[in-house]
Amino acid sequence: MNIQRVISRVHGLFLSHFNVNQPSCFALRHYSSKSDINEHRAKVMAKGLPEKKPLPGVKSIILVASGKGGVGKTTTAVNLACAMKVIEPDKEIGLLDADVFGPSVPLMMNITGEPMLNDENLIEPLLNYGVKCMSMGLLVSGENAVVWRGLMVMQALERLTRHVAWGPLDCLVVDTPPGTGDTHLSLAQNLPIDGALVVTTPQSAALQVTKRGVNMFEKLKIPIVGLVENMSHAMCSKCGTKNFVFGNETKQSADQMGLEIIESFEVDANMSECINSGKPAIYALADSIHAEKYRQLANKVFKYISDKDKEAKATKQ
Fold it and tell me: Which residue has the higher pLDDT, 193 or 3?
């Protein structure tokens, strides 16, 4: 099935929820007393949050998030997913681009093909570097802007998660949009998230928003794997001196939040070429410090998942 039919199926489901000829959708109930209001609130709260249902065939889900944009979050997600595949070739790894409005995974993973629907009416993720990938950027052309309200975004995430043939997967890495919004809330309420990696840079502005993101995950009861610091410093090419061009406040902020900086990456001009060429640093710069650190990061994530699984089994016994 071609891309236009995929889009029509996806968009058709989205738009079917918006029928302007049904004024009852916007009808408000009048409550005559405070006791009626309290009773209504109690009934609403009793319904609780949506039940978290695992994705069929997906063992673990790791979010990659950042409070502020432009801190290298997608670069981290892409190289983490690829590094996990490199160090554990027998493991099945997936990468979901959950940034509906600004998808970058297709560019960084060099995937431009048209996704197809299988016999079960599920979208088949595209495969590159051994990683299964899906992004809204594959369902709309690069020149078209996605201009949707919150409910339509939630429907898009539903399609990108539960209507994609992800399984079997040992780990699904989810690249989330910057900030603390509908996407994070929807993912947290509907999927069993194993943990989140929070990406930041050393600037005060970035760290301040990072703290808000950490607070959001705490409220959503999503454990944080650790902090990843990008652009920590720049090395002088002549004398090898470290220049903290963006500040040096990450360690202090991490201590205040009670988090560990599990990996730190310096500024490297070659990273930009990796992004533009669609060849992740783990492959394009295989012998570089950055590639080695991404492999170390992948090992730490695997260990985190393993320890969490062992803890869960011990709790059941």
Answer: 193
pLDDT, the chain, mean? 85
Tokens linked to 146: 């996605």
C-beta atoms surrounding 279 within 10 Å:
18
Beta strands in 181-252 (DSSP E): 195-200, 224-229, 234-235, 242-243
Residue closest to 207 by CA, chosen among 233, 182, 228, 234: 228
SS3 58: strand
C-alpha to C-alpha distance for 53 and 6, rounded to whole angstroms:
24
Q: Are 294 and 80 in contact (CB under 8 A)?
A: yes
Distances (CA, A) of 254 to 75, 201, 207, 231: 21, 12, 9, 16
Residue bearing tokens 């069929």? 56
Strands (E), the chain: 61-65, 93-97, 126-128, 131-135, 171-175, 195-200, 224-229, 234-235, 242-243, 261-264
Give me 1's structure tokens.
Answer: 């099935």
Q: Does the pLDDT of residue 268 top 50, yes or no?
A: yes
- HSE-up (13 A, CA, CB side) for residue 308: 19
Give residues with Cβ within 8 angstroms of 72, minimum separation 6. 199, 201, 230, 231, 265
Tell me if residue 118 falls in helix, strand or coil.
Answer: coil
pLDDT score, position 240: 76
Nearest-CA neighbor of 96 among 150, 151, 33, 163? 163
Q: CB count, 10 Å around CB of 302?
A: 18
- For the segment 16-57, what is each residue's pLDDT rounded down to a tens digit? 444 444 444 445 566 567 777 767 666 655 555 567 889 999
Q: Which amino acid is at 70?
A: G
- Residue 117 scores a pLDDT above 60: yes
Unique residue bearing structure tokens 């918006």: 18
| Residue range 146-155: mean pLDDT, rounded | 74
pLDDT: is 91 or 8 the higher one? 91
